[in-house]
Amino acid sequence: MKLLLTGARIIDPAQKIDSRLDVLLENGRIIKTGNNLARSTRSKDTEKITELIDLEGMILVPGLIDMHTHLREPGYEYKETIATGVTAAVTGGFTSIACMPNTNPINDNRATTEFIRRKAAEVALANVYPVGAISRNSEGSQLTEFWDLKEAGIVALSDDGKPVMNAGLMRRAMEYAHSLQLPIISHCEDIHLSANGVMNEGYYSTILGLNGIPAIAEEAMIARDILIAEFTKTAVHIAHVSTAGSVRLIRDAKARGLKVTAETAPHYFTLKDESLQSYDTNFKVNPPLRTERDVHAIKEGLADGTIDAIACDHAPHGRTDKEVEFEYAANGISGLETSLGLSLNLIHSKILTWPELIARMSLNPARILNLPKGTLVTGADADITVIDPLRPWTVDVQTFRSRGKNSPFNGRQMQGKVILTIVGGEIKYDGR
Amino acid sequence: MKFERKDILGIKDLSVDEINFILETAESFLEISTRTIKKVPTLRGKTVINLFYEASTRTRTSFEIAGKRLSADTINISSSTSSVVKGETLIDTARNLEAMNPDVIVIRHSAAGAPHLLASLVKQSIINAGDGAHEHPTQALLDMMTIKERKGSIDGLKVAIIGDIEHSRVARSNIYGLTKMGASVVVAGPATMLPRDIEKMGVQVHSRLEDAIAGADVIMMLRIQLERQKQNIFPSLREYAQHFCLNRHNVKLAKKDVIVMHPGPINRGVEISPDIADDPSCSVILDQVNKGVAVRMALLYLLTGGSE
Hints:
The complex is a heterodimer of chains A (about 425) and B (about 300). By secondary structure, chain A is of the alpha/beta class. Helices cover about 30% and strands about 25% of the residues of chain A. In chain A, the strands form 5 sheets. In chain A, strands 3-2-7-18-19-20 form a 6-stranded mixed β-sheet, covered by helices on one side. In chain A, strands 5-4-1-6 form a 4-stranded mixed β-sheet, covered by helices on one side. The longest helix of chain A is centred in the middle third of the chain and has 18 residues, at about 215-230. Chain A starts with a strand and ends with a strand. In chain B, helix 1 (about 15-30) packs across helix 6 (about 135-150), helix 6 (about 135-150) packs across helix 7 (about 170-180) and helix 6 (about 135-150) packs across helix 11. The relative contact order of chain B is 0.16. The chains are: A alpha/beta (about 425), B alpha/beta (about 300). The interface of A and B includes residues 201, 324 and 327 of A.
């Protein structure tokens, strides 16, 4: 069976393509891109084309990849299951996602990794790539079995949410992981500096009387991890960058030729700490929303390539986790279904071009995680996202496919929406 | 003036007119507490719930007396533990109380923003009796009432607030109130007790007591909480007292007619020496407590439609 997608503007940063082309898919792969494929293909084997989709005015890109999500299963199924999380992913335009290990039990072993992969295969919507824990039970004292985890199917290692405070352990983790070509994703937070903080430390934490998390809690750890990566001649990926100082540290490290990559989340270039004045727990996230200056620096970092990827840090929660006093509320935003919409604002405001944005949401995450994805080159997996760049819509958390309705973006007007998510040549989401 | 507010959550939200109106109303209630029969029927048939999630003697008693002197039915709910520990969420507690149709809920909570959460959920009036390190509006109102009585006006005064500003809701509410009313406010404490960007609240910042109280009309001393020592906010009470205790000697740096305030409970010999605390020529600490009842009577009255 073949699927021919015609008339869309094709953007493929890997091949530096940005033009109106047709794309032909067969057996889960991209077999041809070119002009007027409908005519040329029809002349030879018309009967084999079972479906032709006219995408005039649409934008067709390599399937989006979110390298930082939380699927909550096993253990926290009331927040999200693998099935609901992956459904949210394809609804948001993501054909592949990496899921963090802070489930219960923690994904620090082969059995849990295999369980996640089996569940994801049963759902068969987006590709799910588990991230394994760096340390056993993410307790920061003993390394997990990286080799075994890799064989089971993890694509990266992270103690996300539980920063590795022991620099010696982080050094060993980077060395050992590097020899296995496994990226380390570092949640950079010095927990002695963040202490019992619940929001960014600054004017707004002062007037709201909430304990602050200083920018240096993030920056000090990024500086440490850059130094470890440099000394050990390995690589490190910095998760959810939120401060101007972090952007500067990463920019400097890259300028020195170090193998440092970084991601940020849409809320860090969209929201500021002043939004917390309502004590709305949907704005509570870790790292916390920062200041105007930080938001500006994050945008600059995205524009100049300091920040390689946009990942939404999808953190679905149940009502019981959020409908409490601010300081008791869980951190996190259910982000998969708003990530693209918010990121398109970077194009509307001329911070990124289309190819730049798509590189940060597909090609770059694929490269960081060593996935054979993120491109529309002939022979590649037919993972494709089609976007209607003009379609207006309003965020309504009640329509989220994710179990997590925790979004500070509820009611927000967006421009540009996913209309097709194709994974392995099959349409997994159709919003036409 | 008609008082339109549903809730009193913080001084930040109040206008100068509203503050003046509350203080004038409170002044008219002062006299009731001096009568032999200290009760008027104003709030007969109204119900006031004091929902205290944090230990309090002064504020809770003050609210209870305020309600009773106005003939409201006052109910006290005290919980030494947070709602999380207790097992029922604040939201559920709020909905249950709402179902019993009180008129005003007074809440004290260790979590900043808890009164705001409550106010967004229930139709009753909410009075914030202190939320975390955020605001303590009734304390600031009674402080302003005390200052106004002693000094005639707040406008143009220099007020020094000394101590752990970072953890003090009293400091925040007073900074909002006093600066709105035209005072110039200076704060002082060890750098570890001064929150980031505090100067953006419109105050001058000093790291020495002496610099802050020089020429002051009003000195407000804050209570040092002993458990802060464990968080390395200060090394020892001894050292703190040596440098930040208001005493006979350093109080001379202030104006001759300076008044000394403290929201209580005082740590004698830590932030304030006993001879200052007990000196009727400058200490107005007990006068503050007295004004507290009147201010709370005024708020209960205004929130239940008294100005209509």
